[in-house]
Design brief:
238 residues, mainly alpha, 0% strand, globular
Length: 238
């Protein structure tokens, strides 16, 4: 009698085969270096940027904003260079998204100064009259909780020591509270007096937004240099 006449055995072998195929084609590639490209130009999030990312997720910003530029002419013309796999090496979870109620943010880092972001988060319509984005001014009245930051970067494998995490947090606090901080006037206006000398959740969110796509410029410059060196080497051989 063949296997087809034994329903229980046939079902069991089918399940085993499907699980084996799933493991080989879906799970195993996740842990293979070839499917996880990295670049020396793409740096892990700093402690403050990571906290800002968590706030971004907590407030559901990724429900309206994607973070992936598709390799289409119209996309590149509007948002910049299309997304590369290595850009997301440090993202857990990924925030590619599919809805664009708001514009894509994959390349927003450095596009606007910090002052613009403080104003936009506090009152979106003041910088974009047609915006239907809710105001997040209340984030400036919440002191940033960094109690679990070191644990987070450790779990994510960013490689920062506890001292480095502390230094990153202190350094950013000094930066945004300094008298010569370029966005000082706007930050002081949207931040309650009792929180101006501390890091707030809005500070962290601005830090995260300014990180998005910033490393890609260096990545593209590195690729252009490598391409030119390669072309130069070919010319010398000829």
């Amino acid at each position: 009698m063949g296997i087809y006449s034994k329903p229980a055995l046939f079902a069991l072998l089918s399940v085993v085969l499907i699980l084996a195929g799933t493991f080989v084609t879906t799970i195993l590639p996740i842990y293979m270096p070839s499917t996880q490209p990295v670049s020396r130009y793409i740096k892990p999030y700093t402690a403050v940027e990571l906290e800002g990312r968590d706030i971004y997720i907590r407030e559901g910003c990724n429900n309206c904003h994607t973070q992936t530029v598709r390799p289409l002419r119209t996309e590149v013309a509007r948002y910049g260079e299309y997304s590369k796999p290595e850009e997301f090496a440090y993202d857990r979870p990924h925030l590619w998204g599919s809805r664009r109620t708001g514009p894509d943010l994959a390349r927003v880092g450095g596009k606007y100064p910090d002052a613009w972001h403080y104003q936009h988060l506090s009152d979106p319509a003041s910088v974009s009259p047609v915006s239907n984005m809710p105001a997040y001014g209340w984030l400036a009245g919440r002191r940033l909780d960094t109690g679990y930051t070191f644990r987070k970067v450790s779990v994510l494998g960013y490689g920062y020591s506890r001292q480095e995490v502390t230094e990153q947090i202190d350094s950013y606090r000094v930066r945004v509270t300094a008298p010569d901080y370029p966005a000082r006037d706007v930050r002081s206006r949207v931040t309650p007096p009792e929180f101006r000398n501390y890091l707030t959740e809005m500070d962290a969110l601005v830090a995260y937004l300014q990180k998005l796509g910033r490393d890609v410029k260096e990545l593209e410059q590195g690729r252009q240099v490598a391409l030119q060196e390669n072309e130069s080497g070919k010319s010398e051989v000829q």
